[in-house]
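Hi support team,

I'm filing this because I wasn't sure whether my run with phosphoenolpyruvate finished correctly. The job status page said complete, but I'd like someone to confirm that the output block is well-formed before I use it downstream. Pasting the exact inputs I used:
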Amino acid sequence: MIFKGTKVSNGYAIGKVKVIHQQEILVSSKKVDDVIVEFNRVKKAIENVVAKIRDEKRLYSNRLNVDDLLIFDAHITMAQDPEVLSLIKLEIEKNHESAEYAINKVFDDVIKTFQSLDDEYFRERAEDVEAVKRKILCELLKIEEVDIDNIDEKVIIASYDLTPSQTARLNKNNTLGFITETGGVTSHSAIMARSLDIPAVLGVKGIMVHLKDGDLLIIDSEEGLVILNPTEEQIKEYENKIRLSQVYTEKLNLIKKLPTATLDDRKICLAANIGNLIDYEKALEVNSDGVGLFRTEFLFMDRPSLPTEDEQFEVYKTVLSGMNPKRVVVRTVDIGGDKKLEYMPLPKEMNPFLGLRAIRLSLTYKEMFKTQIRALLRASVYGELAIMFPMISTIDEIKNSLNVLDQAKQELLNEGYEVSDNIEIGIMIETPASAILCEKFVKYVNFFSIGTNDLIQYTLAADRMNEHVSYLYQPFNPAILRLIKMVVDTAHKYNRWVGVCGEMASDKYAALLLVGLGVDELSMNSTNLLYIKDIIINSNYKDLKHLAQRSLMLEEEEDVINYLKEHTDI
Ligand code: PEP
Ligand code: MG
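And here is everything the job wrote out:
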């Protein structure tokens, strides 16, 4: 039998299935007398669940990358949603319902609202709300979640549903793959599957009733297929596919040591984006040409207070010395927007992405900024440090940032510390203002790094977090390509180098286009790095320049994408 689901990660698996049955939680109406006691039970349960999610996040912080860890924050936000809480309160006070019933009812209403939306992304958020509801009910009813950690044989896991934290707990050595009936491409279990690099097919509707422990299954996560009780022929076919994909992985391993250059010898720096020491280890594993973006704000999150100068220094020193002599571009904190610090209450803003964010926040909280710069300067003697300021939009901001840098340096020298005199300084090009005026910024910096995630959102005026306008999030829009080209040409005129460290750099077509536009460094998540390297080292710069020239002349993003698909053989 062949079932169709949604492709969410890569690879194939053949193996016996282990069916995980989640305990069904039944909640019926039960009237209570003391509404205050009842509401306190809700608050206590939520408090405990939030603490547990925080513990889980800490526990998995050495298995997941920083982006995936944000899922736990999303669940905390949902558990603490003040509107939901006040509806629960109302249900208890007005109808004298039990805590369990009120939670079940209010969360179910939210789930139904999400499910009724047209947008797939929002429909998938319903599953997150369901996971959070389940956690709170389990807490109230003292139900233990299914134990997924202790599976001791190599199996394919099948479950109606897997929460992101259950997915994070999957033992990679014993989990050949997993399938669920719920979930889609952007569901958080799917994101985890990609991060853990486990073949998975989600949204396989109706499969569970057909499965029992020990059944033989094939998972084809390239096509989103699940084959139950495959024929000999199908098994052979998939054994062959597994062999071929192993050969490809081995091939990628072989290119780790090769220099990153096109066939006609245009050298590219293929660097890694990191946010913590786990990401740094992954960068070492793929032998990246350095670190092109260290998102340091992650060192400031999930802790009770600001990291001290010494704490920061230790992390920067580890990364700089481990990467030495390769360059490490450290970006000063980019807090604000969607990245909040629990211990630093900031004013609520109508448009956080247009508000007190990144360098604007650092220049407002100068002591915090200076502490970070001091830690960086002290670490500078251990490797090749480059310091980069995020979201610069005016010359004044760069001047003020450089002033803080000078002050910190002077202080350290007076205190007897050594500071490298070979530190490169750069800014991120994330606003149209900095791109348009880059000729004026050039004299203050050694390099530019284009943050396409933000440059796209600010140029097309489309909030990068808002799925309703995601159609405007267009990396290949000729407007973006022309801005990038302008920055590259200007920088090269003044002998400065240019990197791209937004998500765009890890897309195969975009990577080729960026090289063709003359970008010197591409920086990306380590998971994609060797794949992109393979594509670059098998291309000709001469051809890529031509592709880029033609793309710049087109009208729409779609034209560029079609043109690239037609004129490349990747
Ligand atoms: C960017 O904006 O492209 C970028 C790399 O920064 P972040 O994604 O952290 O905002
Ligand atoms: Mg950015």
